[in-house]
Specification:
Elements: H1 7-17, E1 22-24, E2 32-33, H2 34-50, E3 58-62, H3 66-77, E4 81-84, H4 91-100, E5 105-109, H5 116-123, E6 126-132, E7 141-145, E8 163-168, E9 178-182, H6 183-196, E10 204-207, H7 214-226, E11 230-233, H8 239-249, E12 253-257, H9 258-267, H10 272-278, E13 284-288, H11 294-304, E14 308-314, E15 318-322, E16 344-346, E17 359-364, H12 376-382, E18 387-396, E19 402-407, E20 412-414, E21 417-419, H13 421-429, E22 434-444, E23 448-457, H14 465-472, E24 484-487, H15 501-508, H16 513-523, H17 529-542, H18 560-574, H19 582-585, H20 589-598, E25 605-609, E26 617-620, H21 631-636, E27 643-646, H22 661-675, E28 681-686, H23 688-702, E29 707-713, H24 718-722, H25 726-738, H26 745-774, H27 789-798, E30 809-814, H28 828-831, E31 836-841, H29 853-871
Parallel strand pairs: 3-4, 3-5, 5-6, 10-11, 10-12, 12-13, 13-14, 23-24, 26-27, 26-28, 28-29, 29-30, 30-31
Antiparallel strand pairs: 1-2, 6-7, 8-9, 14-15, 16-17, 17-18, 18-19, 20-21, 22-23, 25-27
Helix pairs in contact: 1-2, 2-3, 4-5, 6-7, 8-10, 9-11, 17-18, 17-20, 22-23
Protein name: AMP-binding protein
Family: Belongs to the ATP-dependent AMP-binding enzyme family.
InterPro entries: AB_hydrolase_fold, ACP-like_sf, AMP-bd_C, AMP-bd_C_sf, AMP-dep_synth/lig_dom, ANL_N_sf, PKS_PP-bd, PP-bd_ACP
Length: about 900
């Protein structure tokens, strides 16, 4: 097989080795064998040459499908260049495609209603009929030309450099991009695909993918014939016909696009006897063209008692990965372990990224196709110096498994927040009432784009839009929650079985933001005073008056600093201290006003990202007491990683001004155990928050509970560097004062006394506050209330004297020093008596929590989380 130069060589090989073996099958027909297929190829060559067509002449093939279409495609590609087309296209589409692809002739099923004939006639393209020579035999067809030339040409064998097939991608452009594949590129591809799927001459593939698409033509038909097996193509995605054929053909593989397997799973209950009989021969269900939802995949594996295998590839690259067949290892959500010398994940600069970090999936350019035809702009976009860029986003894990997270070009830009639609689809599919889900963009006058969701509900079940949104809040961060949910009986799909996201708004005629706003205003004419005040506050904070009552704060571009400003203004204007998680649970004006009216009390535990079944991660607030700054970090972690921030307040009463870090840690420990009663615990914090997390780890240890992970984000111990005795203080400043010019000496003394005065006032307030917290009779309106969280926490840090911790920790250290002392982090070497791992992050002390540094921080934190979680299962 390694000596094959053209697909003709493949046909000849199997015709010689297994002349009577079945190659093409059809419903209630006798099979066509390899010997007969070889004769058909020869006859096609003579007929095409008689009409003046041969090597590299592009012949459009249009057929209704089945074995007859497969035979026609093979007969043409072994003598000329085949260009398969969807027969349902319009005359205008055919006209443009025929021109762009330089079509020389149209081979079309006789009597097939198609506007391709009209386009061919306008362009003066020869028309050749495909005639069913023997209806009793699958694939028995012949050609009959209506425009036979006066003088034909001598048939000539195709060569390795000749183009076998011309595909059109199903991309986002109106007519796709042209992908020509010569025999020398196509043959190694189909060989590789057959090896990845373990195809042999004993396999019978029941195919329900369109043959005008690369999935049916190359991954289905060519790969099966290369392996010497038999190919049974089903017409028109007819699932009922598939089950009829399943009874007679005894296939080893059912191959189809991911969307058609939804129908197969649903229809299987109508054919229990056929399904039961098929189990004895089936060895896999092979899906492609997109990701099959895990819920459907698991149901199919249960119904047919055979594995579902998902292949990832394209016309440009062929298969890049494929889920393994048992006993090969598999991981839920992954498309398998690709060849690490061929498939890479890179950043915007084209450099490979660490494991678990998302990036674009690429292959070395020499392993891809040779470029789009007559499209230099597309080639510049797709090819860089080293890579062919797939346009898909994904990541590799530590075991080399590839996970696809979505199409980069399909990302929805919701007010600057990039949303991968497949993430929203998969979250909706987790609800047992949802059968299909596709998210899509909506135009929005403020955000640019908003997100909507189209769903099909399972038969016999029901769910409201509000209930589904509440469900999604447990699986998505707030700015990914769709603003509109549309319920349909069937989701519109393109010719390859995929929903076209950018067209769904038009296809479904979804209410746009402009009309939605006017309807909303009519409903809300009787707004409460608090709602009006809330709306004014939002407008002031976000700097725009164009805000609807149901617009999401973060979707409108609100950031963590603006969120803090929002809460402070609400406290001042409305006299209410709100829990910080309200922006994550109820991030609209309407929902926030409702919760205020209901008198919701606040908690120090903020579920920034509560979804997922991994052990929760608890991060303590920085010195200012707020946790909204952790939002970006949480967003970049695994989708199923719960993330809780510990906020410095308890309720509307000022009982959260702790007199020491030890008091603070005691309270936070109890709050954390309300969420997670037993360890192992996962703790962390940025700067000051790391000190409290360190204390918490010690306290959990004293209770016999394990801290599996302690993450210190650029946490240091300033008291170790700044504490000096009074004598040392006097000596240091005397030396400085003595060297000063005479006129500057009084000012220096005054400044030192002023600093001492400020420090003493803060210390007195702190002492007073500690007493008042213990004695309810002391007024809360005392001067102690004036002191800020940051001042209190800074004073508590100054008197904090840490003791060693018998456990492990990870110090995420910034490259830019946080202090004039270069060894400011060194104290941790003495305090961590277990293993201290140090991980350097670009940027400075504040910038570590901002893009682009926070995404790298999250990737490294994810690595350690995954590593520890494998070793320490949650209780």
């Amino acid at each position: 097989m390694d000596t094959f130069r053209t697909f003709n060589d493949v046909i000849s090989f199997w015709a010689d080795k297994s002349p009577k073996a079945a190659v093409l099958l059809g419903p209630d027909q006798i099979p066509l064998d390899y010997q007969s297929l070889q004769k058909l190829v020869t006859d096609f060559g003579k007929e095409l040459a008689g009409s003046g067509f041969g090597r590299n002449d592009r012949i459009a093939v249009i057929h209704s499908g089945g074995a007859e279409m497969a035979a026609s495609l093979i007969g043409v590609c072994c003598n000329a260049t085949v260009a398969p087309f969807n027969p349902a296209m319009s005359a205008g589409e055919f006209y443009l495609h025929f021109q762009d692809k330089k079509i020389k002739a149209l081979a079309i099923e006789k009597d097939l209603p198609s506007q391709a004939r009209e386009a061919a006639e306008k362009l003066g393209i020869a028309i050749i009929d495909i005639i069913q020579a023997d209806p009793a035999c699958a694939g028995k067809v012949r050609l009959a030309s209506e425009n036979a030339r006066q003088s034909g040409i001598v048939p000539e064998a195709v060569q390795a450099d000749d183009v076998l097939v011309v595909f059109t991608t199903s991309g986002t452009t109106s007519y796709g991009k042209i992908v020509p594949l010569p025999h020398r590129i196509a043959l190694p591809r189909v060989k590789n695909m057959g090896q990845m799927l373990n195809f042999t001459s004993q396999d019978c593939i029941l195919n329900i993918m369109p043959l005008f698409h690369t999935g049916g033509f190359a991954a289905g038909m060519l790969t099966t014939i290369f392996s010497g097996g038999s190919f049974f193509p089903v017409k028109n995605n007819d699932v009922d016909m598939l089950f009829h054929c399943l009874r007679s053909s005894k296939p080893t593989v059912i191959a189809g696009g991911y969307t058609v397997f939804h129908s197969i799973e649903r229809k299987a209950q109508d054919y229990p006897e056929i399904v039961q009989a098929a189990k004895s021969s089936l060895r896999m269900l092979r899906t492609g063209t997109g990701h099959l939802d895990q819920k459907i995949a698991e149901s199919l594996e249960s119904i047919f008692e055979t594995p579902v295998v998902e292949a990832y590839g394209s016309a440009e690259t062929s298969f890049m990965a494929c889920t393994g067949l048992p006993p090969a290892p598999r991981k839920t959500g992954s498309v398998g372990q690709p060849d690490r010398n061929r498939v890479f994940v890179v950043d915007k600069n084209g450099d490979p990224v660490p494991v678990f970090e998302r990036g674009e999936i690429v292959v070395p350019r020499e392993t891809a196709f040779e470029g789009y035809e007559n499209n230099p702009a597309a080639n510049r976009e797709a090819f860089s110096e080293r890579w062919y860029h797939t346009g898909d986003e994904g990541y590799l894990d530590e075991d080399g498994f590839l996970f696809i997270t979505g199409r980069i070009k399909e990302m929805i830009n919701r007010g600057g927040i990039k949303i991968i639609p497949t993430e929203v689809d998969q979250a909706a599919m987790k609800h047992d009432a949802i059968r299909e889900a596709v998210s899509f963009p909506l135009p929005h006058k403020t955000l640019g784009e908003d997100i909507a969701l189209c769903v099909v509900v399972e038969s016999g079940k029901s769910i409201s839009e509000g209930d589904l949104k509440n469900f999604l809040k447990n699986h998505l961060i707030p700015n990914k929650i769709p603003s509109r949910i549309v319920f349909v009986d069937e989701i519109p799909k393109g010719p390859t079985g995929k929903a076209q996201r950018r067209k769904l708004n038009q296809q479904l005629q979804v209410l746009t933001q402009d009309t939605a706003d006017s309807a909303s205003l009519r409903k809300d004419e009787q707004l409460t005073a608090d709602t009006l005040k809330m709306q004014n506050i939002w407008q002031e904070v976000l700097g725009t008056s164009d805000i609807g009552l149901d617009d999401n704060f973060f979707a409108l571009g609100g950031d963590s600093l603006q969120a803090v400003d929002l809460f402070l203004r609400i406290e001042k204007v409305l006299g209410r201290r709100l829990p910080r998680d309200i922006l994550f649970e109820a991030g609209t004006i309407r929902e926030m006003a409702r919760l205020i009216e209901e008198g919701l009390s606040s908690s120090c535990v903020v579920p920034i990202q509560p979804k997922g079944n991994r052990p929760p991660l608890f991060f303590i607030h920085p010195i200012g007491g707020e946790v909204l700054g952790y939002r970006e970090l949480a967003r970049h972690l695994n989708d199923d990683q719960p993330f809780y921030g510990i906020q410095q307040f308890q309720s509307n009463e000022n009982t959260s001004r702790y007199s020491s870090l030890d008091d603070m840690a005691d309270y936070y420990l109890d709050e954390i155990r309300q969420v997670q009663p037993k360890g192992p615990y996962y703790l962390g914090g940025h700067s000051f928050g790391g000190l409290v997390a360190f204390l918490l780890a010690q306290k959990f240890s004293a209770l016999g509970e394990e801290t599996a992970l302690l993450a210190l984000l650029d946490t240091y111990l300033p008291s170790r560097k700044r504490y000096v005795s009074p004598a040392q203080w006097m000596s240091l400043h005397y030396k400085i004062w003595a060297d000063l010019p005479l006129l500057e000496k009084p000012g220096y003394i005054f400044e030192r006394f002023r600093n001492i005065s400020i420090g003493l006032k803060k210390l007195i307030k702190l002492k007073f506050m500690a007493v008042s917290n213990r004695d309810p009779s002391i007024s809360k309106t005392s001067p102690a209330d004036v002191i800020s969280y940051q001042d209190i926490n800074a004073l508590n840090v100054r008197k904090f004297r840490p003791t060693p911790y018998v456990g492990n920790a990870i110090l995420f250290r910034t490259e830019l020093p946080v202090s004039l002392h270069p060894d400011v982090h060194n104290e941790w070497q003495n305090l961590i008596e277990g293993r201290l791992e140090i991980c350097d992050i670009p940027g400075g002390h504040v910038q570590i929590m901002e893009e682009p540094n926070v995404s790298l921080l999250a990737a490294k934190l994810t690595y350690f989380l995954n590593k520890v979680q494998r070793e320490k299962p949650s209780a």
